[in-house]
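Changelog-adjacent note: as of this version, every example in the card shows the full chain rather than a window. The one below runs 423 residues end to end.
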Amino acid sequence: MTTIRLSTRLAMALALAVGSAWVVPAGLAAAGDEPATAVLDWNLNATTAIVAVAKQPPAAAIQSYAMVQGAVYDAVNAIDGGHQPYLVAPAASGSESKTAAAATAAHDVLVGLFPTQTATLDAQLVTTLAGVPDGIAKTAGVAIGQSTAAAMIAARTNDGRFGPSVVTIGTDPGEWRPTPPALAIDPVSWVANVKPFVLPRGDLFRSDGPNVLTSAAYAADLNEVESIGSATSTTRTADQTDAAIWWQDHGTALWNRILRNVIVDQGLGIVDSARLLAMTDLAGADALITCWNDKYFWNFWRPITAIREAATDGNPATIADPTWTPLIATPAFPSHPSGHSCVSSAIVHVLQAFFGTDKIAFSAFSNNSHTTRSFSRFSGALKEVLDARIWGGIHFRTDDVQGSVIGVKVAHYLVKHYFAPVE
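Full-length structure tokens:
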């Protein structure tokens, strides 16, 4: 099997491809289309079920979101018939209720994932369906949603989720080991071996890997994060501190919150909304799976370890600080590449392709910083993500850059192979 390694130049070239071969134009809600209310409501219901109640961490949660939104898309698209299905296209006349189909698909996937939440999810479905007039359109819509949810659950059975741990604790310079103060070990390392949603396999896009410890590039990375990422940094600005904390919100929930805001701001109907959420969450899931596979391939140490043990790295341009502490608590898994950068890059590049432009403004609130940040274009958010992981003291710049390369490639693959318009 061939593993594709990606360079930063390739990432830039692929980014420039947006607006040409893989653009999927989208516009305001088509005349006569149902409003996006059910899709938005059930994306929010999914956030509550996946994050607030089940408390899945981002690396696991993105797969649950992908299952929900993939099934919702197939249900709505079966009725609309405008694009290729993701998994299935149940027979439909086009007159069925898309609202009933979307809500039922999301409900059934969430019940399959979290059976202990059935009573709450049943009540939420009753509320949604109460707003749909009784009749054949409603009944048929429910049946379509049930069908696409069943297909999704079947497709993801025995897919590697919740499998065995793949953690290896190193002892040599450059090798990952648990970080203080918690000294925790990744509870979802199994993500590295999960079957992707759209890619043929999880190791298709191997990164170039971390810099050699004795290189000038490595020293530059370490010295940057040592200065600006410290809990007591005097070089980090107040706005950079806010950004680092803002992006440390649950990444999967934060991006879905952003997507809901974009859908409302752009006035998308139920068809475009279902497709947008499916494309972004599926791309995000595969970017994260690829990232975790890459993390445990390289098994590279975190900045806190590297800085405290810099005297062992063989690089005269690095200086050890045995008490150095990052602004943000270090996550319990290897540093390279950055998971947030992989996912954010995939989502941003899908958004650029979906709308055919980068220049769409949006704002969102972070439950971590309790502040709102605004962006004038999608790429501005991605740039800030890459910087924020350094400002927070938890990643080297190379982790972020190479993570963004993985995200570009995953987005490119998805748009090229899935969700094409049906003539």
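Structural remarks: The chain has two domains: 34-155, 189-417.
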